[in-house]
Amino acid sequence: MHFSAIFAASSLLLSAVSALPQPALSDAALSRKCNNPPKRVEWRQLKKKEKKAYIDAVLCLTKKKAISGIAGTVNRFDDFVAVHNAQEPWIHWVGHFILWHRYFVAAYEKALRQECGYKGAQPYWDWSVDVRPDDPESMHVFESAIFDSETGFGGNGVKIDYAPGQNPFNLPIGTGGGCVPDGPFTSDAFMNHYPGPEPQCLRRDFIPSLVNTWETPELVAHVLSQPDYTSFARALEGQKSFKTPNIHGGGHFGVGGVTGIMGDAKNSPGDPIFYLHHANLDHIFWQWQQKDRETRLREVGGPVAPLDYSGQNVTMDFLVNLGPLGPDTMLEELLDTEGGKLCYTY
Ligand SMILES: [Cu+2]
């Protein structure tokens, strides 16, 4: 090796060393304690009265006045739909997808607890235990406890025929499509005011094949096996295509189908099940982080702009916010669910 190359290499090493141990979080953030973090569990692990307490808290949010100031919002539940709608173009197929949604679900959990007296944690729905990967048309997954009409979120929408041009993505024909006729979120008890102008009922349009073949233990294992944050994020979301199975899309389009709220990219938080689907994705992310906390509580990556894999990547100090519902927050403050800006566990 030429002398100057050695010199350059050693000075590079020196500058790398001097740039090294910056504290990952500010002292203020580190000193903020997370005591007794709420422990999130799978929906089925809740007792009957805990399920009722959760659903009652969701209905309570719909009775509190909106604070976001976003046109069309009437209540606190609408606030969250509106913030997701407003940010939709830059929070999907990006490096910060999972962290933005972590922040979002945590803010919702906090609202349920602080504004509606809910004592528990945000539950999640682990669809991978319900699916029948070898029987794509099986409706078994929709018999899951989460869709129970007494103790769950109600089931499929009533069967309707699509209007011409209503299926722009050419999804398989769904099995429902209209308003959900049973459970706690029927139109007499629950409506989406946002985006308006007319309030809308909760619609679902189950597509069994998308849940059964996308929300599989095998695909979860594939996501969990990714070696770094960037590849994890990419495996989680897949491509902007309905041809490639991915565990994020399967929950949305399997439940929401062609006409349902869960299948509406902008307004999907209008179905209360959104938060259990996203809490499950967050649980998977948390599990992945636990496998190497040293590295994975300090690592982000992936594109700033949707699907821009050759462009700029997000970094630890990249800022996200929840509009009027949550201040600018660096990604590094969202990596640890029991530190920085967050306080919950699994
Ligand atoms: Cu989203």
Offer a concise description of the structure:
This protein is mainly α. Helix content is 35%, strand content 1%. The chain has a single domain (37-334), classed as Orthogonal Bundle (di-copper center containing domain from catechol oxidase), CATH 1.10.1280.10.
Descriptive overview:
The chain is an all-alpha fold. It has a single domain, classed as Orthogonal Bundle (di-copper center containing domain from catechol oxidase). 35% of the residues lie in helices and 1% in strands. The protein is built from eleven helices and two strands, in the order αααααααααααββ. The protein has helices spanning 3-18, 27-31, 48-61, 76-87, 97-116, 208-214, 217-224, 229-237, 247-256, 274-290, 293-296; strands at 319-320, 329-330. A two-stranded antiparallel ribbon has the order 1-2. A hairpin with an 8-residue loop joins strand 1 (319-320) and strand 2 (329-330). Helix 5 crosses helix 10, helix 6 (208-214) packs antiparallel against helix 9 (247-256) and helix 9 runs antiparallel to helix 10 (274-290). It is globular, with a radius of gyration of 21 Å. 42% of the residues are buried. Bound molecules: copper (II) ion. GO terms for molecular function: metal ion binding; monooxygenase activity. This is Monooxygenase. InterPro entries: Di-copper_centre_dom_sf, Tyrosinase/Hemocyanin, Tyrosinase_Cu-bd. Residues 1-19 form the signal peptide. It holds the Pfam family Tyrosinase.
